[in-house]
Amino acid sequence: MGNVVRHAAVLTAAATLAVEEQAALVLAIADAHPLKPKPLPAVNDLGGRGLLLVDALVREVHGRAEVSRRPPRAAISIRLPLAPVAA
Fold first, then answer.
1. Cystine design at 80: which of 36, 57, 60, 63 (Cβ 3.0–4.6 Å)?
2. What pTM, to 2 d.p., does this model score?
């Protein structure tokens, strides 16, 4: 969510949270602004690994993350299983 605040146009960003019938929790975040906004200044030089970290964490619990960059919309959809995963 931090990147939405930092990168997305304030009035065009949307987040949804839902439970699918296939026992999955789905989080979707999208920005429909037609232009790519300029990022706010960073507090430090750390950054640029957000999607990599999200993908690694989601895979660890056997979920799935999908990124879409089809103009004019940028979106990420994350599906997490609600049932425990057998070790």
1. 63
2. 0.68
